[in-house]
Amino acid sequence: MRFVIVTGMSGGGKRTALKMLEDIGFFCVDNLPIPLLEKFVELIAVPNKEISKVALGLDVRADQSFADVGERFENLQKNGYKFEILFMEASDAVLVRRYKESRRMHPLASYKGGRVEDGIRRERRVLESMKRKADYVIDTSNLLTRELKEELDRIFVQNEEYNSLMVTVMSFGFKNGIPSDADLVFDVRFLPNPFYIEELKHQTGNDIPVQEYVMGFPEAEQFIAKLTDMLLFLIPNYVKEGKYQLIIGIGCTGGKHRSVTLANKLYERLKNQGNYGLTIQHRDIKNGI
């Protein structure tokens, strides 16, 4: 039997992950009280041809302690039970935004006067050891629902070798500010701007004429080749150091032409180069110049 414990930050996507696991054949139980964990595993592990995959959601709640979870996990392992831990993560800024959008109270916020930010900080401390023990860490800060499904399929359906690094290639416009969460930022304003070509002005880097114009300059191809070479060196080392998220920002003036073109090209170069997750975003493509 494959047994997966789904936990992580409140607002990080645990329930969405559980629903997706249910769709691929897992028997799912959410928010089981921690004292019942060992008994639940004993009961579910009884040979049962109908249940071969189980996912259990464990949440931090104000009315129960997470302190003895590690000890209960050790007891399960001593008794011969095998399990995997999937930890759902997101940045503080994203978690705050999600809570404000949902108008819900963070489960631990009441300990610090009701502020969501304080609840998040307290929850991170509580879950610190759980995150270190996790087999898979998925950061949903920049993930679309479709991309999360692809990641879960890769782990639990295709059973591919997996590490927890999620790489995001993001185009942006400097006029709208550098992405605050970017780890690496590259300025491609050294290339001629298609905005000043009348027939290209209202197109984007997703359109072939703009791509052909931008990539028609030898400097563009040299830039992509050198950047790809550097990233293929950096990414495995980030994986070794346990980094969970790498955001690569590629910026031009408005985030519509040059940055989009080169972000697309970089994404294509990085695809299928390793067992890390890879996504692409065009932050300013709808309002860039």
Notes on the protein architecture:
- It contains nine helices and nine strands.
- It has helices at 14-23, 37-44, 69-78, 92-102, 116-133, 145-156, 208-215, 218-240, 258-270, and strands spanning 2-8, 27-30, 53-57, 84-89, 136-139, 166-173, 184-187, 245-252, 277-282.
- The protein has a five-stranded parallel β-sheet, sandwiched between helices.
- α2 (37-44) links the parallel β2 and β3 (53-57).
- It is elongated and about 70 Å long.
- The protein starts with a strand and ends in a 7-residue tail after the last strand.
- 35% of the residues are buried.
- The mean pLDDT is 89.
Lateral arrangement of strands in the main beta sheet: 2-3-1-4-5
**Radius of gyration, rounded?**
22 Å
The gross shape turns out to be elongated
Largest sheet: 5 strands, parallel
Number of strands: 9
Residues in helix, %: 25-40%
Number of helical elements: 9
The overall average pLDDT, rounded, is 89
Counting helices, strands and paired strands, the structural category is alpha/beta
Low-confidence residue ranges: none
Order of helices and strands: EHEHEHEHHEHEEHHEHE
Distance between the termini: 54 Å
Report the portion of residues in β strands. Answer: 15-25%
